[in-house]
TrEMBL record:
Name used for this protein in its record: Histidinol-phosphate aminotransferase
Gene3D superfamilies recorded: Aspartate Aminotransferase, domain 1 (3.90.1150.10), Type I PLP-dependent aspartate aminotransferase-like (Major domain) (3.40.640.10)
InterPro entries per the UniProt record, alphabetical: Aminotransferase_I/II_large (IPR004839), HisP_aminotrans (IPR005861), HistidinolP_aminotransfase (IPR050106), PyrdxlP-dep_Trfase (IPR015424), PyrdxlP-dep_Trfase_major (IPR015421), PyrdxlP-dep_Trfase_small (IPR015422)
Subunit structure, interactors included: Homodimer.
SUPFAM superfamilies: PLP-dependent transferases (SSF53383)
PANTHER family from the UniProt entry: HISTIDINOL-PHOSPHATE AMINOTRANSFERASE, HISTIDINOL-PHOSPHATE AMINOTRANSFERASE 2
Pfam families found in the cross-reference section: Aminotran_1_2
Keywords: Amino-acid biosynthesis, Aminotransferase, Histidine biosynthesis, Pyridoxal phosphate, Transferase
Pathway: Amino-acid biosynthesis; L-histidine biosynthesis; L-histidine from 5-phospho-alpha-D-ribose 1-diphosphate: step 7/9
Lineage, opening ranks: Bacteria, Pseudomonadati, Pseudomonadota, Gammaproteobacteria, Lysobacterales
Catalytically driven reaction(s): L-histidinol phosphate + 2-oxoglutarate = 3-(imidazol-4-yl)-2-oxopropyl phosphate + L-glutamate
Similarity field: Belongs to the class-II pyridoxal-phosphate-dependent aminotransferase family. Histidinol-phosphate aminotransferase subfamily.
N6-(pyridoxal phosphate)lysine PTM sites in chain numbering: K233
Amino acid sequence: MDEAAFSALAQPGLQRLRAYDPGLDLVALRQAHPGLVELGSNENALGPSPAAVAAAVAALDDAHRYPDPIGGGLKRALAAHHGVSPGQLMLGNGSHELLMMLGQTFAGPGLDVLASQFGFAVYALAARAAGADLVQAPALPAGHAMARGHDLDAMAAAVGPRTRLVYLANPNNPTGTWVPATALEAFLARLPPTVLVVVDEAYMEYATEPGLVSAVGLLARFENLVVTRTFSKAHGLAGLRLGYLLAAPGLVAVLERLRESFNVNGPALAAGEAALADTGHVERVRQANASEREALADALRARELAVSPSQTNFLLVGFGADAAAVEQGLVARGVVPRPMAGYGLPGCLRITVGLRDQNRKLLQALDEVLA
Ligand SMILES: *Cc1c(COP(=O)(O)O)cnc(C)c1O
């Protein structure tokens, strides 16, 4: 039997699902291009905190033991960091796992999951894996100041009696755009309390706009709010797979029924605690990203390219009909961006903000390709 034949045996929701596309085969590309400039996955250009790496290595001495099944140490540290109680926290094997579990737990056949057009790809996976229907609210137009960003009015208008879950990234991937905390609060106030709103803050540490602050402060007012965070981006621990969510204790208790007992490994738990404590490292990451993000956006705009506003560690750049050729030309020169056709943006590439030298190599390769 081939894939189509086995697919017919799968749950109805999975029959219409396609696997997450992780991008190019980087292992082969690294061999072909020593010094490959990898700007396709929004990884942290400065890497992890050395203290986090040391903690993970030390934890390997206990590799024969199961990890703490509740991650108590890390949860207490996160609770103190965010000003919540440990019972409001749940840890995940990356926030991807938590986003999927939210769908498995609260969505299902006959229910709608709402996201924005140009929302993060995992939301569609989470909806369909649960057998629910994905409803996409139209995004703001490309010409809007917050180009292709979330249109909260359109999202609120798309909420109906079947809507159980709303996924919304702030700031958003792949657009880089954001909604101010005040707008998010007004949006939450418009929804019935039985509609759960998941605010994915994977990039929140990179935010520099004063109006863009975490929704964690809204948890006390809205019991239907879930905030997800990750150690993969600003903490530079994508390879260890560690994320978490914050929500009402009752909601966390229901999600816990589905959680695999040892979903987060020991080195990740140890690294997470050390990374959270190394506030100096996160601050250096934030500042380096903010200045390089601005410089790179300016350099791209100087080449008459359309660059969306970004509060993340990447830029969405418009190349029009040339996008696929530009991508190929960059990869041939050892620079890897992320094509966006899968997001319905065939004219755009998403480019992670790298170190200064990497950004220089990107611009040099781009000038050769565009010449
Ligand atoms: C990178 C990213 C995540 C984080 O995924 P992890 O599973 O925690 O590595 C979550 N949401 C968005 C929007 C992202 O871009």
